[in-house]
Amino acid sequence: MYIKKMELTNFRNYVKQEIELGSNINILYGNNAQGKTNILEAIYLSAIGKSYRTVKDKELINKDKEFSKVEVEFAKKDREGKIAVNLSDKKIISVNDIKLKRMSEALGNINIVLFSPEEITIFKEGPDKRRRMLDIIISQLRPAYVFNLNNYMEVLKQRNNYLKQIKFENKPKDMLDVWDMKLAEYAEAINLYRQEFMKKIEKKIAPIHNTVTQNKEHIEIKYISNFESKEKFLKKTAESRELDIIKGFTVHGIHRDDIKLYINGDELGIYGSQGQHRSAILSIKLSELEIIKEEIEENPILLLDDFMSELDKERREKFLEDIQDNQVIITCTDKLELKNEKKKIFYVENRKSKYKKQLVRFIRKKVLDFFRKVII
User: Fold this and answer.
1) Percentage, residues of the chain above pLDDT 70
2) pLDDT score recorded for residue 315
3) Where are the beta strands (DSSP E) in the chain?
């Protein structure tokens, strides 16, 4: 699987840009704030249906324009296709020029694994980001998961709103039974998917981490959930009902689940060094690559946002050797010197900004020339 070509219209700092990518290693290099990460974001948007940098689609539209469009042409072992994402007042996604009825239908056309600098600290932060990481993995391979997750979150929102109505408007408490049953139903489905994929990650991550750390560290990953069964979920929800009303939100549920990593028996989020966080995330991403490959029998696309600078030359070459069959799209500030002969290199520069600077210099020169002549 690889992306052949992409076209950006009014996307972030790009007014009109076409990019033809190679099927192996692609290096996008240049100074900061020139638009390298925007290209990865556009690929992510076409694969997942949303950005990994913002929840507001409006921020993806060039500030001087009213709409934005991303078109991506891709090739798989059995077919070729095109995904188009149009952003204006609402988001419209099309696959092969056919408008999709649901955003989840876009998932699985392009399979990606993203590594961004922000993820290095993901085990130091709140559990919502770790759940989201797992949700993205599952969503690409199990579209029904998205359906259940979206429904769960919508019911949860409605229940939380009603909890506030009970507290401030004295609404009847027994009406919560309707939302509780729905929450239990969707939670059961979501838990099954999450448990399935956590077992896959558990199986992959240990041998991968041994390789990454040269057998210096032992890694364990655990999924922390209070969901045991539909019946026990309903019992816990009933028991915490009064507390939920006081707080104004649902205390228990799969929306509180977490993922924890342990290095040599110590919790990474509490005791891990920066290097251990980096190698642990790398092991998770490599596990994700292998899981997707086994599921779809094809190599997913790897997006590396400013990651290669974190590795020395030797580890960089070893890492690229391990993923040589994948299309890899790398962003970095300096041009990487790699042995791989199949690489394709792009220098990324914000031409609009460059043009403005040149125009200012030109005007300044003309003004100075004019005053020199007047003085003379």
Assistant:
1) 90
2) 67
3) 2-11, 14-20, 25-29, 68-75, 80-87, 91-95, 98-99, 112-115, 219-224, 258-263, 266-267, 301-305, 328-332, 344-347
